Amino acid sequence: MDLTTFLIQCLNSVQYGLLLFLVASGLTLIFGIMGVINLAHGSFYMIGAYMAFALSSLVGNFALALLLGIVLAVVLGYLLEWCFFSFLYEREHLSQVLMTYGLILVFEELRSILVGDDVHGVAVPAWLDGSIAIGNGMAYPVYRLFMSGVCLAVAAGMYAVIRHTRLGMVVRAGSTNREMVQSLGIDIALLYRVVFAVGMALAVLAGMIAAPVASVYPGMGGSVLIVCFVVVVIGGIGSVKGALVAALLIGFVDTFGKVLWQQAAGVLVYVLMAAILLWKPQGLFRQGT
Length: 289
What we know:
By secondary structure, the protein is mainly alpha-helical.
């Protein structure tokens, strides 16, 4: 592998890892703070991809479609938490798994009714449809750099909110002791709805920005969900910082595994998870970081 190819694979690793972080950060917020095992989180990613397909065709502007998609995701997330997830907090995990699995089936059926079962593509917007020269006659797509930039901006924003704002302090406290937060007069129900809506919006945003570089197809949320749970487990349940580090680790292992050792690429991520859990059974970082 020459230096140019190595650099391109590093960029691909970072881009894939940051996209995983965008999806997994919402999952770790919902799982870590509310204690809900949300199997439907991968469906939120799929909804985002289909939103990119539908809204781009409807409004004819990718940036406007992104904005509309995020607003719709926040509203839908708020309603989902209110109608379904708010009844799960005191239930055992089996009830959570069954209900969220049922939501997967509902979302898939609705998708089939509304859009059909065909595979769709989303065009890269003209203002991002280019590439930059890296060297040795090779180039890197501008859109993939845009994806990394969006994910980095979201990660920086989340870090700033969680570590340096009162809302972030309440969220961190709520992840470890919800009764104490409620006893201080904070509306924990409203906090949960906001956190859930944000978590869903992150997954939808990831699906929307991934749509132009990946096909939009039925059941696409399933494979993403499995990897995202691996990210949450490696990073530490409820740790956004851990999700970022774990997602980048998985990005490098998966990308370079496919290049250097294709036969074993499918299991390398799970070998990484097993090795880290043997070293740190609770994940790389503690809850609330």
